[in-house]
Amino acid sequence: MKSDYILGVDGGGSKTTARLVHLASGKSWEGRAAASSLSLGLTRSVAVILELARELAFRADCELEQLCVVCGLAGAGERSLANQAHEAMESYFARLEVMTDARTSAYGANGGEPVAVVALGTGSVAMLLDEQGNETMIGGWGLLVGDEGGGARLGVNAINAMLWELDTLGQPESEVGKWLCSQLGNNRSAILYWLRHATATQFAGLVPGIIERLERCQQAKALFESHMQAVERLISATGEHLPVVLTGGLAQISARHLSEPLRARIIPARGNSLDGACILAESLMQPSSSALLTGESEL
């Protein structure tokens, strides 16, 4: 079946967005669904993506078999997971590539031009696209050992501080600690239950409540200052020459609190991870697409 359509998918720890484009007419359809990060589970990720793809194909009056698809997914840096996702979905589409959302962000952020993209979403990662077309990833190791500067890590750190107050003072005394206790539970059993079932998405979901209390709670301020130290460390690791684009839910507020030398390197994004996925999906239809799509760093 002739392929006239491309589908770009951006799957993160908080949401999934997708855009289907009919190249001949320029018409496009967009949709949004639940998180599809591979770290949340392969079955869940595949189900979310296929459901969203079917919805958009229905709206565009086309078949899945007509789509050339690029999925930029959080968690796809683990090659075995990316391969499993590819195997689970490849039979549905004309062509499919599964890659990290850091890579699709790099291509979308500056229209494929050299850039350092620092993503501050549920997790955190930096992706460098240099003048020679080389790609380098920094961070993106996941919540268990990394993701400093991301929302989930900020949520974990806030809970850690709240639990210390609970253990040493008998009850939370900071405003943010009291609020967190109201969200997780007011006793050890309830808190342990919440923690046992919590995902990175749920930890990141606590961030708005922390930020809301920045101006009036010293503990919230200290937590955010620690977050900013991690953000500056990640940006500094990208070197000194590439322009920097911040993306993700924490990008805007983090940019406002950067030190002046780092703030001077920030440029507006020309696009996002979804735009990058569409750029790469369109390249799937070109005879020379293999070089572009296999150039991703092993990291």
TrEMBL record:
Record PANTHER family: N-ACETYL-D-GLUCOSAMINE KINASE
Listed Gene3D superfamilies: 3.30.420.40
Protein name, UniProt field = ATPase BadF/BadG/BcrA/BcrD type domain-containing protein
Its lineage opens with:
Bacteria, Pseudomonadati, Pseudomonadota, Gammaproteobacteria, Alteromonadales
Which InterPro entries does this UniProt record tie to the protein? ATPase_BadF, ATPase_NBD, Euk-type_GlcNAc_Kinase
ATPase BadF/BadG/BcrA/BcrD type domain boundaries: 7-254
Organism, as annotated: Lacimicrobium alkaliphilum
- One Pfam family of this chain: BcrAD_BadFG
